[in-house]
Structure formats: C-alpha cells, structure tokens
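Example 3.2
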Amino acid sequence: MDPAPSPFLALPVHIRKRIYRFAHLLRPCPILIVPRSRAVTDSPAGHPGPFCRSEESASEGALESHMLLGQRKCTCPALPKQLLLINKALHRETLEILYGENTFAICAHETEDFEAFRMISNDALHALRRLVVRWNSVPFIHAHEHNNGSCLICRAPVSLWRSESMFPEWKLVCQLLARSLAPVHLKLDLIINVQDSTTMHRIFASSYCLPRLLDCNIWMGREVDPHMTSFASLTAQYLLTKPSPELERNTRKAQTPLALLPLEVRRRIYMFTNLRYNGPFLAKGNEICVKDGKFVPSLSPECIHATCIKCSTTAVRCLCRYGLEWQSFSPHCQCRDLPVKLLRVSWQMYADAAEVLYSTNIFTFSGSFLNTLKMLQSFRPETLKLFRRIRFEFDFEQTKAWDKQETSFLSLFSFIGKHFDVSQLLLIIDTNKDYYACLEREFGEPTMKNLYDAYTSIMRWVKFSLPGLADFHVVLGMFLGLETVFEKHVMGPQYDSKRGNRYAKAAHSSDVISPAISNWKEVSEIPSWHRPL
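Structure, written as tokens:
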C-alpha cells in the first residue's frame, strides 16, 4: 500500500509555488554553480550547493557574481535544501521548481568550474530552464569598463588565459545538456572574452550539438572585429532556429504559421510591434541612436520616470540586477524595447523584420567615423539597402579639426554610396552642437573659418559620394543662412527641403531660432568669405 500523500502536496499548485517562494526556493539572483570545495555549506549528494562562493574562498580580484564595486552582495538566504530530503514526491517537485524557475550561472575560469556542473543529476538538468555561462569575461562591453585586468563594476578577471585546457570540459558540458534537455526549453546566455577568432570558433563549435534553444544571447566581453560579431550572431540564430529531427522530416511543419501568410500581411503585422514606433512623439520616438558604431539606449519621451533599468547603460547585463544604487526600476516604464528576438527566429522572419526595422526608423550616427564604418561593414549587403533615413551628428571637435577627420569621413560615405539604395535615402547632416560649443566660449575668426571650411568640405563629399540622393536636409550650428545654399548645391537649384521629394523638412534653423539671441547676426548670416561652391 502506498504511503499517504503529504498534506502539502494536496494543496493547489499555485499555492505550493507561493509557499516555495516564501521558503526562498525561488530567487531573484542567479545561482552560481561552483565546486564543492568553494561552497558555503554542504548539500545532499548529487546537488552541489548552495552554488555560491564563500567570503573566505574568494581571493582578491576573483569573480564574485553578487558583488558590485565591493559595496553590495546578494542578500538571498541559503537554499532550503531540506526540502530535497522529505520524500520522493516532494523531492521531484522541489527539483523541478529549483531548476525550472531560477537562473543558474557557471563562471568558468578553471576546469573544475565545468566539472561542478557535471555533478548535477540528469533529472535536474532536464528541468533546467535558464543558464548563464561566463567564460573569462567582463559581463557586457556596453555596460562595464575594464582596467588593470579586472572589471571595474564586478571585479571579474578579464585577461586570464586558461581556455585551452577548458575546451574538452566545455564540450562535455554541451553534450550533457544535449542528452538531458528537450528542444525549445533552455534560455542560454553565453558571455565570452575571446582574444582571437580561432578560440571563438572552438567555443561555438562545441555548442552546435545543443538542441534548439528557447532563447540565446552571446555577449562579447571586449571589442571585437565585425567578423567575430557576425559569427556570434549567426551562431545564436542557428541555435534558435535549429529544427528538431521530426521537423526536418516535414519542412511544412518546420515553418511558423506566420511564415505561411502573404508577404504584405506579415509586414503589416510587424508594423504593430516595436520594430516601428507607433507612439505620438514621432520627432524622437522613431530615432535609433548609434554612437561609435554601437547601439545606445535612449529615454523614451513617453516615460515619466527619470531612470529605469531599461534606460540605464550601467550594469544592465550584470548577473544580479536588483538593488543597484545608481539606477531605479519602474514597472510603469514605457521605453521602447526593440523586439530583436524576432530577427533570430528564422531567416525569413529576419528578412521581414529587418525590412520594417531599417526602413521605418531614423538611424542617428555619432562619434568616430571609422567605428561607424566598421559597424556598417558587418551588415549583410541586402540589409544595407533597407535603410531609408540616416542622420549624422557632428561633434564640435570633429568640425573644428576637420582636416584630421576628412579621410575617414570620405571612406564612410564612399561605402554608403556603393552599398545603400541612395535613390530612396534621406540624409540629414546635423552640426547643431557647434552652436552650443561657440555659445559657451567665444572663438575668433580663425575658428569660424575652420567651421565654414568643414561645412563646405562635407557638402562637396556628400554630392560626390551620393549622386541621385532622394532627400537631403542640413541642420547647421553656425551660418544658418547656408542651410538652403548647401541643400540646393547637393540636390539641385530647384530643390526645396521644406517640401522634399519624400521627406519634407519642417523648417530651416533660421526660421526656428529667435533673432533675440545676442549673437544672432554671427549665427545666422552667410559669412563674407563665402564663395559659390
């Protein structure tokens, strides 16, 4: 006769889950998997735990995933390991909750870090849903600076070179996951700090045996070249779209229902996602900013809160996202969150979503021209032809010392002229920052002539590199009267940007800025040394 079921198991599932949460089985912070020698307390056989480093074992500079600038550690209580020892039924449910509802992390700096993961039972691995693997890395290049061999935020070592001996262990981990996981169950974040493309290829090659993943993000720990970034993106896309053996035998089933709809219907559906801005603030809402060749987050005008976790560029990709002192989280944040995962579902969905993303938004480029060029070179040729509106914001230091920037600017615009669909492209040249720089400090005539020479050089290269441009808008920081002169020089004497060929310009700067400002004449008038271009 079977023993009577535990009264606890007779409760409804949602009640039991709530009790598990109060018992701290569900944790906001990721659970770090470490060898038993570095665990804080003992745990039942087959279950290394509680999966975090003790203060005694963490040497100076070692990785502590729950420490931020040495000021705050994870305050989660110890895992209730006693729940695993009551009976088989409760053990099984506790195991499913523990591994199915929490995020686990491997910080791989030694071979024994992977060996600890292999101690986990097959039942536990089958229930695993979220895994973060950090391989000798800074958490995220856009969020963290690194110096003196360690991350300034979480003290992660960034220059250890022990990867050679860890390749076999990583391969065994991937094979273990492949045997234990069902398709479309695991969310994987792979955070790596590789120093060459050969190492990266060896790491990714071991992951190809994994089943199709529910989500996959690959973050590079340092600056990498476009080839490495592109290969990481393709690897993530492959792991997200990898068909199961059953679907490979039936290609019709392998397609998502959306893929069976007509092209125009699919585009219309994508228009209702955040790939296209649908809010009331069209002037800024549909703008996507790129600085020094990297996408940067921007605060939505709809968001009434000063900062939130989506708007901050600091520690967004830290393992522990809670309790950060320099950012606040608001559930009411309305910041636009691009659904980039749509680009990873399948090649067809990538093509459809990319067309909506790049053709309906304004991309604002700023910073280094060479970094912007490297970023654009990493795009597929067919993707580059989807851009419809691009803006270039010039810093005062760029226009002031234009002789040092001219060569890289010409290389960038020559690339745009060769690979973009110029006949459908709106180009905006924006030097408005020059006005604010000159407002703060008074510059003499030599500086003003340098700015004028920079403006005229930019216009000449634009006309030379982009013949047949669809629309062209100029926003100057100085000499506002030259805006229409430059636009007509590039587009032709009959061109009026306020009407536009496709995108009309609201007004020229001289129509907007008040003549009441003290230096109105210097800002607005065409300089006396101007000659026809």
